[in-house]
Specification:
It is a single chain. This protein is α+β, with helices and mostly antiparallel strands. Helix content is 27%, strand content 23%. The protein is built from 7 helices and 9 strands; from the N terminus they run αααβαββββαβαβββα. Strands 1, 2, 3, 4, 5, 6, 7, 8 and 9 form a 9-stranded mixed beta sheet that branches. A hairpin with a 5-residue loop joins strand 7 and strand 8. The longest helix is centred in the middle third of the chain and has 12 residues. Bound molecules: (S)-Methylmalonyl-Coenzyme A (MC0).
Length: 214
């Protein structure tokens, strides 16, 4: 113990006023933490190392403005909505049929983000196959707000190697704004929806989505 204390000046300093009683106390005293888990970088002499952060490319032609919603496909919309309302005390919307998208949606409003519950509508719903593979339901997609969905699509296809799905032209989503889906094979296996954040809701009809963005 004396040898250990002599070899670590910080511990020596602490040991004058603090007597560790077990191994965890010894670790906390040495690393300077008080319970939360941290990573200690190699060669950092015991100091907690900050993770390095790399920024996105400069001059991006569009910006992600945040998370719009997380969509969960469910086998029973009424039951799922009731679970979110009663178990989590969340406000839930009435079901909204969206025949053009092949889904009925219920929005669950949480303080910092919405959850969109999805159920197939019609024979060719894109959610049907997903539910066949995941009969109990599951996370179907993540929707990001962007400031320019048109510029985003162009940049993703031409510069980032990320393909859009369908015709590549925006359609109108459940929040009444232009949306586009990206191929999950290009985005780490997660289906991502882009939504035009600043589009005026109610002002767009299906055929007007693309021109509304110009
Ligand atoms: C109202 C609106 C809104 O939010 O505003 C909505 O929600 S509309 C929500 C519904 N609309 C959409 O989802 C539109 C975009 N979705 C699509 O175009 C399609 O569903 C695809 C994502 C391309 C999947 O195609 P398809 O339905 O034919 O399924 P599939 O079973 O043949 O799957 C083909 C490959 O995609 C994968 N795959 C299927 N669904 C996936 C999902 N949700 N997330 C991640 N990967 C997925 C499968 O595992 C498979 O991979 P492997 O080949 O490796 O086995």
């Amino acid at each position: 113990m004396e040898k250990l204390i002599r070899s670590f000046p910080r511990l020596l300093q602490l040991s004058k006023s603090y007597r560790p009683t077990n191994r965890m106390d010894l670790f906390k005293a040495f690393s300077g933490i008080s319970g939360q888990s941290v990573g200690i970088g190699r060669g950092s002499g015991g100091r907690v190392s900050e993770p390095s952060i790399r920024s996105g490319p400069e001059n991006m032609p569009y910006n992600v403005k945040g998370l719009a919603h997380i969509a969960i496909a469910v086998p029973d919309l009424t039951q799922a909505a009731e679970t979110y309302r009663t178990a989590f005390g969340a406000q839930v919307s009435d079901p909204k049929p969206m025949p053009d998208q092949g889904v009925t949606v219920v929005f669950v409003h949480l303080p910092n983000v919405n959850i969109e519950l999805l159920h197939p509508l019609g024979d060719t719903s894109p959610v049907s196959k997903f539910l066949q593979k995941n009969p109990k339901g599951g996370i179907h997609h993540v929707c990001l707000n962007v400031d320019n969905v048109h510029a985003a699509a162009e940049y993703l296809i031409e510069e980032a190697g990320v393909k859009t799905l369908g015709s590549g032209l925006p359609t109108i989503g459940a929040e009444g704004k232009p949306i586009l889906f990206l191929n999950p094979k290009d985005t780490a296996g997660v289906l991502i929806e882009l939504q035009q954040a600043n589009a005026s809701v109610h002002s767009c009809r299906e055929g007007e989505a693309a021109s509304a963005l110009k």
